[in-house]
Inverse folding.
């Protein structure tokens, strides 16, 4: 099928799919809409990873960076998700905005963000979140919640000044380089609308999918 022959006005899709060659422009437009309508966290996404035994697992994270290639979130590098990403550097992301009944799925390969970018983001976080990044040994069992509270107190003593809380070495960002992005819009009687962009070398191919 020669995708280049398609013009988006011939695809028969709702006008909210716009007519973009690049899915990032469409992503930004949908995110801007969701920011106006969602009651909280429009940047929340389900992140799926797969461990070395091919067992998938999924959890929510917040999108904290977007380039023209990559979707970025931050986390503990020793967490379950990070361990899985180290052994299998591929992931899938899914946004769902109930208020506008839309979904976006993004698949691709993942790598750590450069330290400079992670530092910049870390330094923009509130004091309590920075201390929390030091105190939480994310995804490992703890005996009692008092252990965590004790660790928070200890790190507050170690780093009493807001601007001088450094980024922990075990905390950084992951950047998902998308090779497929699919936009979904709810339709009557489950006759939904789907538009998939697939990366082919340097350009994106558009296809509409049966719901
Ligand atoms: C809306 C929402 C946003 C979240 N954002 C993040 C995030 O950006 N980074 C993070 O490490 N955990 C975030 N969490 C917590 C994760 O879902 C998860 O519990 C934690 O990262 C441990 O996951 P893991 O054991 O799979 O590594 C968020 C949870 C929710 C419900």
């Amino acid at each position: 099928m020669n995708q280049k022959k398609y013009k988006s006005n011939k695809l028969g899709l709702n006008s909210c799919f716009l007519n973009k060659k690049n899915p990032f422009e469409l992503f930004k437009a949908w995110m801007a809409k969701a920011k106006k309508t969602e009651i909280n966290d429009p940047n929340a996404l389900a992140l799926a990873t797969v461990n070395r035994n091919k067992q998938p697992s999924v959890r929510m994270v917040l999108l904290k960076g977007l380039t023209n290639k990559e979707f970025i979130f931050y986390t503990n590098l020793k967490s379950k998700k990070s361990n899985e990403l180290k052994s299998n550097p591929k992931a899938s992301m899914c946004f769902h905005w109930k208020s506008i009944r839309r979904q976006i799925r993004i698949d691709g390969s993942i790598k750590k963000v450069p330290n400079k970018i992670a530092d910049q983001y870390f330094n923009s976080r509130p004091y309590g979140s920075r201390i929390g990044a030091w105190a939480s040994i994310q995804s490992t069992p703890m005996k009692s919640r008092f252990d965590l509270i004790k660790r928070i107190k200890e790190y507050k003593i170690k780093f009493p000044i807001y601007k001088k809380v450094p980024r922990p070495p075990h905390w950084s960002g992951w950047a998902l380089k998308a090779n497929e992005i699919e936009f979904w819009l709810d339709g009557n009687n489950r006759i939904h609308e789907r538009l998939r962009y697939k990366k082919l070398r340097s350009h994106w191919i558009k296809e509409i999918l049966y719901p």
Observations:
- The chain has one domain: 3-124+173-209.
